[in-house]
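Module 6 notes. Inverse folding takes a fixed backbone as the condition and produces residue identities as the prediction. Think of it as a translation problem where the source language is geometry and the target language is the twenty amino acids. Below is one complete input and output pair. Work through it position by position during the lab.
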């Protein structure tokens, strides 16, 4: 069995971040979202992994490499433009060959992994398995309708009326019959080969499509709020460790991870929180559910429930920063004036002065 991760796409919901970087490389608890997908596949016993890449392919290749660091072997498959999930399957046909495979959208996050779902697919005599997440209103997603035997009888993309509470999330399992489907369907009105049309084709042509209802945490990390929530979920199960340097005037409270080379001076870190490699925290307060990536400087400020990407500086801010996603190579500094609470989404290579 092989794995196939889609890591193309424009990431429009995470702009301005994704003007300069791959959305799948935005870190959750100081680890790119894409790495969680790779680790989930390897944990489920899948070492051969194809990654479909587009405009940000160079960044993805540099970050992932050949896959050996994860215990797998990665092959890259070029996609000329975002043409739909089913198109990603179609161009991977030569790589997959006659094997079954797991399709994983690279910006999807499941905290508890996919080993159980993969085992269920391997044990069943089925052609496809989709993972469903029960929601009060799944109308913004593909929605599955089930019969009494947990078979999928219909899949509807973004239904205008309620048809089912079961949203189809971005993890699928297929055998070779899926290639018959992706080669037969036609582009939708938005010009893409849709995964919902692919699944419906399999159903209409008598193939067995089963559902696996997810009872753990799943997030599509396509928006700022989703990144912050995924970050919270990982930090909630964090095992504390200290590979950095903490001076005597500082306090570590709760579950805190200091990665290699991190320095904390006259500061309080209240976990769950993670401080990245070679990051310096000085005269600062870092509150719960905060991840600060590598080579950052946080000085004379307070921050909580936020994600800060690499090589950024937050200096001398007059108010506590909260509920924020701050990009790479960003500098946030004080410019004077009255204080107030800050909530920000700041893109890469930005500079912000706070009044």
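Target side of the pair, the amino acids:
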């Amino acid at each position: 069995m092989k794995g196939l991760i889609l890591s193309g796409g424009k990431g429009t919901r995470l702009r301005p971040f994704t003007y300069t970087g791959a959305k799948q490389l935005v870190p959750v608890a100081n680890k790119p979202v894409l790495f969680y997908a790779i680790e989930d596949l390897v944990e489920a016993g899948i070492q051969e992994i194809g990654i479909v890449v587009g405009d940000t392919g160079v960044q993805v290749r540099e970050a992932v490499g050949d896959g050996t660091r994860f215990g797998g072997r990665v092959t890259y498959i070029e996609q000329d433009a975002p043409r739909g999930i089913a198109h990603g399957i179609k161009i991977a046909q030569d790589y997959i060959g006659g094997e079954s495979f797991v399709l994983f959208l690279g910006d999807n996050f499941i905290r508890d992994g996919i080993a159980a779902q993969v085992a269920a697919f391997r044990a069943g005599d089925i052609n496809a398995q989709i993972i469903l997440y029960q929601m009060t209103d799944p109308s913004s997603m593909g929605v599955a309708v089930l019969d009494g035997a947990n078979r999928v009888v219909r899949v509807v993309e973004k239904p205008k009326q309620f048809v089912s509470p079961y949203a189809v999330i971005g993890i699928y399992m297929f055998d070779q019959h899926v290639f018959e489907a992706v080669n037969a369907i036609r582009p939708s009105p938005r010009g893409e080969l849709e995964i919902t049309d692919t699944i419906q084709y399999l159903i209409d042509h008598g193939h067995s499509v089963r559902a696996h209802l997810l009872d753990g945490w799943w997030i599509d990390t396509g928006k700022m709020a989703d990144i912050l929530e995924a970050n919270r979920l990982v930090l909630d199960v964090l095992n504390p460790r200290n590979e950095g340097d903490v001076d005597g005037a500082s306090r570590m409270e709760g579950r805190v991870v200091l990665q290699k080379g991190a320095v904390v001076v006259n500061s309080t870190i209240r976990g769950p929180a993670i401080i990245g490699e070679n990051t310096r925290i000085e005269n600062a307060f870092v509150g719960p559910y905060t991840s600060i990536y590598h080579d950052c400087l946080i000085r004379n400020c307070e921050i909580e429930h936020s994600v800060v990407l690499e090589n950024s500086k937050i200096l001398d801010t007059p108010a506590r920063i909260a509920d924020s996603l701050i990009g790479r190579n960003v500098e946030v500094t004080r410019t004077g004036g009255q204080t107030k609470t800050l909530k920000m989404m700041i893109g890469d290579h930005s500079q912000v002065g706070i009044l």
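Reference fact for the lab report: The CA atoms of residues 254 and 271 lie 5 Å apart.
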